[in-house]
Design a protein that fits this description.
- The complex is a heterodimer of chains A (272) and B (283).
- Chain A has 272 residues and is an all-alpha fold.
- Chain A has a single domain (62-265), classed as MetI-like (MetI-like fold), CATH 1.10.3720.10.
- Chain A has 12 helices and no strands.
- In chain A, α1 (5-36) packs across α11 (237-260), α3 (62-95) packs across α10 and α8 runs antiparallel to α11 (237-260).
- Chain B is mostly helical.
- Chain B has one domain (50-281): Orthogonal Bundle (MetI-like fold).
- Chain B is built from 13 helices and no strands.
- The relative contact order of chain B is 0.13.
- Classes of the chains: A mainly alpha (272), B mainly alpha (283).
- Chains A and B meet through α1, α3, α4, α5 and α6 of A and α1, α3, α4, α5 and α6 of B.
Amino acid sequence: MRRPLSHRLLGLAGRLAVALVVAFILLPAVVVTLSAFNDKAIMSFPPTGYSLRWFARAFSYKDFATGFRNGLIITAFASTLALLVGTGFAFALDRYSFRGKRTLEAILVSPLVIPHFTIGLGFLILAAQIQAARTFALVIATHVVLVLPFVMRSVYVSLRNLDARLEQAAASLGARPGRALVTVTLPLLLPGLVSGWLFAAILSFNEFTASLFVTAQATQTLPVAMYNYVREYADPTLAALSVVYIVVTATLLTIANRFLGLGKVLNVEHAR
Amino acid sequence: MKTRPFLALFVSPAALAALALVAALAAILQFAFRAFVPGSMEPGGLTLANFAALLRPLYADVFLQTVAICLMTALATLIVAYPLAYAIVRSRSIALKSFLLITALTPMFLGEVVRTYSWIIVLGNSGFINSILLAIGVVNRPVQLMFTTFGVVVALVHVTLPVMVIMLAAALSHVDLDYEKAATSLGAGPVRAFLTVTLPLSMPGIVAGVTTAFAWTFSAFATPQMIGGGRVPMVSTLIYQLGFSSFNFPFAAALSVTGLALTVAVLALAKAALAPLERLGAH
């Protein structure tokens, strides 16, 4: 049966709407890529000639190198700590009932709606009060709190999808709880753990607002260094760096999707 | 028999993290009620002066403008995100689904600085949009898009889009396709089936998406700071300016507390106002 013309027009309109939205999302990425290869120092569009000099400058600018190194240190600690804390808590949340469970959960997911500047300001004031100057530990603690909701969510969803009977089977075969956890539960959770860690790492590395409050010159992360650069210079160096950012992030997400299924983690697959 | 093995081990690190967050928020609350001593990082005695200063038209206006920008952004994001979320959930091609999902999500992971910087090149006076408008002769002078509320809202919609898409897609994926089929077999056209079945059933996602978008927009700092350039003041930029230009941390703290109270109030209000709608989607 052929669908009536009005239905086909409707389908066409829907496709057009989706295409427009995709264009809106991709527009800045396309424009920033074009201007990254511009050979002029003034940011103008369209580029008159092409060059790689802004990539060279982005990679040789000292503050970016320091910011990148600081970011790696902070991200490695923050995402790993968040993974440990978040996995344990997600497990307790899924399996056990205990006093204060809902309160603790509500506090830990609250950074999703509390403005990052509020959290950054809070940790800055707190650090000043307990005489802890702006150190790496302060930045790491702030990032752990910020990325924890994402890790918890990712691990919790994987736990929900896990077949509890496999653990019971291990227990009935004589495995003690610790052994069942290490040999059965953790391996089955691995995709959730990896994607949780990956989300946490990307978000921590790119976090800006709270970092602006809690970092000092010595602990400055890459996004903070980039923000400071825009305030001083108007050349396309940052465009070149943005291109690197976009390519790396999209690649990581594509890999994550390939191996872990983002749709499942984010709960947007159609329930069948 | 131990029925909850390793409970303390699993929960105490999380409790410690929660404690740190609560302590940080308590520190802000405490500072909000202290006097500002110019030229010193140490606050003075207890006072309500910070909150009294908030009522001055200068600051009250910033609050109102921020709320207006948040509302505009949340609604615009909903309209832009819905078709994309629908396509992600309903598309039959796995490749297309993955492409749309990655396209929708990548901006979220890029961070605010990279995204906002890109919008500067799009919106600037010698940027993408103005170059095209000038080239095809629609205008003969660049249209001012940077440093305007319009420019800030456009960039904020882009920033808020991923989270809205996730929430809408999650809700849409739980809408049972059979309901739609039932409506169609009873003679409803696709538009009617969508408006009377799918849209109401996705209402929980719309409520969650709009309120989260509001909170995220309120939280945005890099976008109003870089696109607004000080000419579109929002609460976040004002707090930063107070903290790091005037070192008036007590007043910055009072603004943060008020902003947080406002966010909580808006979230609660939206939840209450939309509760009847949300029940439509309960199943």
